[in-house]
Amino acid sequence: MSDGKPVEQGAKKTVFVLNGPNLNLLGMREPEIYGSDTLDDIAGRLEDQAHALGLEVDIRQSNHEGHLVDWLQEAAADEARSVILNAGALTHTSIALHDAIKAIDVPVIEVHLSNPAARETFRHKSLIAPVAKGTICGFGALGYELALDAAQKF
After folding, report:
1. What is residue 118's predicted lDDT score, i.e. its pLDDT?
2. What residues are labeled active site?
3. What dihedral do alpha carbons 115, 37, 17, 81 form, nearest 10°?
4. Alpha carbon 3 to chain centroid distance?
5. Out of 16, 34, 93, 129, which could bridge 83 as a Cys pair, Cβ 3.0 to 4.6 Å?
């Protein structure tokens, strides 16, 4: 996980973890696709991992696109280290999220529990990917942990 280097004193320490529509239903909604972990389970592991990395996580979920846009702008205003974003279905439809990411100087890591390319055709195109630093998908809840490891390097 950590490369052994502590986060420098005064360095940006907060990583926003933003979750979009229906992710509040993790653990109940289609566990054969999304796994049995709840968002609280994932949050607990991320908080432990962040502590070990010398980081802080600010984990949020909303079913409303505008909240995610506001939080991306807040991450920039707060000079966050990075944002881990699972936009859910908004990945494929939200020009507003695309524009919000493009407008900020905070690296955004796109995360998906499943592999959208292996699913329905309408899930194959991400409007987030072209403006994200990178994308992690198909590894289930582990994808969030991989993203936090990557965020520690910024």
Report:
1. 64
2. 34, 112
3. -90
4. 21
5. 16
* Distance between CA atoms of residues 34 and 21, nearest Å: 14
- The Cα 25–Cα 121 span in angstroms is 23
Burial 54-72 (b: 16+ CB within 10 A, else e): ebbbbbebbeebeebbebb
CA distances from 92 to 34, 66, 103 (A): 17, 16, 19
Q: What is the C-alpha to C-alpha distance for residues 111 and 134, in angstroms, rounded to an integer?
A: 9
pLDDT surpasses 50 at 152? yes
Residue spans of beta strands (DSSP E) within the chain: 14-19, 56-61, 82-86, 108-112, 134-137
Close Cβ partners of 60 (under 8 Å, ≥ 6 residues apart): 16, 17, 18, 19, 67, 71
Burial class (CB in 10 A: 0-12, 13-18, 19+), 33: exposed
Interval 70-121: pLDDT, tens: 999 999 999 999 999 999 999 999 999 999 999 999 999 999 998 887 677 8
Phi, psi of 14 (to 5 degrees): -90, 130
Instruction: Kindly report the number of other CB atoms within 10 A of residue 135's CB atom.
Output: 19
Can you tell me the distance from the alpha carbon of 41 to that of 4, in angstroms, rounded to the nearest whole number? Answer: 26
